[in-house]
Design goal:
Blueprint lengths: L4 H5 L11 H10 L1 E4 L5 H13 L1 H4 L3 E4 L5 E7 L6 H4 L4 H11 L4 E10 L7 E4 L1 H5 L10 E6 L10 E4 L10 E4 L2 E4 L1 H10 L2 E4 L6 E5 L4 E3 L8 E9 L64
Antiparallel strand pairs: 1-11, 2-3, 3-4, 4-13, 5-12, 6-11, 6-13, 7-10, 7-12, 8-9
Bound molecules: 2-oxoglutaric acid (AKG).
């Protein structure tokens, strides 16, 4: 069945997954939380197939050069259409978990599908989400990212890394590194002497929740299989950017949750809606894309 927008809008969301108080405490203490088996293989299959086989996805991807000179590929969107990528960030078990961690209502800030194809040497440099979002006009680090492992994520294929408890360091200075921005490398080096680096290895369907000030990165893919992860970032009304120029897409909009069964019920239209994706910003065209201007260049 392929639904219309109104069919999705009229659904009543219910969730079967709620976080325990212990998990919520762990998140606040460490700045991140891994929850296993949130999505199963059947729910992930259409996205896995699309990531592995579907050239349609490539046309909406932006590429960024990282500090090691290699390219990283990201599909970046904030509008939630009826496509599968528009549905994932609205699934009740995800949104309810985020709201339990925030202790507040959340809205969708943006999402990113990050694919590292086989043997892609593109790393992602250490950074905090809030290092950028502050410059977009968010006054408070109220954002949470929920990173859904679409495929298995391992040390060998470039899983996410976090520096445990680094969210307690507050917002760090970010510098221009490669095509994008990263936390000041001198501070990261010192943080790594005091805090633990955690490789966030996950099976497909596991979720990594992490705080806006959590230092995170990822390493190259040394395997012959793609690594894919869907980062869904949420914000609260309090943390909404005050800036309007180029930031309308990050403004508060009530988030309509969808039932946990939406994907298995086939209640979506296609994998993605091409118009929803933002392209890379450049000096001439300061658009809504991922690259954020104004950072000093790292020495
Ligand atoms: O998925 C990854 O490899 C990391 C992506 C990331 O950190 C980001 O987009 O902020």
């Amino acid at each position: 069945m392929t639904p219309t927008s109104s069919a999705l809008e009229n659904t009543i969301a219910s969730t079967k997954l709620t976080l325990t108080q212990e998990q919520i405490n762990q998140y606040h203490e460490n700045g991140y939380l891994i929850v296993p088996n949130v999505f199963d293989a059947e729910e992930l299959a259409p996205l896995v197939t699309a990531c592995e086989e579907n050239p349609e996805l490539w046309s909406v991807e932006s590429t960024y050069q990282m500090s090691n000179g290699q390219l990283n590929r990201i599909m970046y969107y904030s509008k939630l259409s009826d496509s599968l990528l528009g549905v994932f960030p609205r699934i009740a078990r995800v949104v309810d978990s985020v709201e339990a961690l925030l202790g507040d209502e959340c809205y969708h800030y943006h999402s990113k599908l990050v694919r590292k194809e086989a043997y892609n040497k593109g790393n992602v440099d250490w950074h905090q989400g809030y290092g950028t979002w502050y410059h977009q006009g968010c006054l408070f680090p109220t954002q949470i990212t929920c990173a859904i492992a679409v495929t298995e994520n391992t040390k060998e294929n470039g899983c996410m890394q976090v520096i445990k408890k680094s969210h307690e360091m507050g917002r760090l200075n970010h510098l221009r590194i490669g095509d994008t921005d990263g936390a000041d490398p001198e501070i990261v080096e010192q943080a790594l002497k005091k805090l633990e680096l955690v490789d966030c290895e996950m099976n497909a369907g596991d979720i990594l929740f992490f705080h806006a000030n959590m230092l995170h990165a990822s390493t190259p893919n040394y395997t012959d299989r793609i690594r894919a992860i869907l980062h869904c970032t949420y914000n609260t009304k309090l943390g909404e950017p005050y800036k309007e120029e180029w930031q309308q897409h990050h403004g508060y909009q009530p988030l309509q949750k969808l039932p946990d069964s939406t994907i298995k019920d086939g209640n979506y239209n296609g994998i993605l809606n091409e118009q929803d994706f933002y392209q890379t910003e450049n000096e001439e065209d300061k658009g809504t894309g991922l690259i954020f201007r104004g950072f000093e260049t790292a020495q």
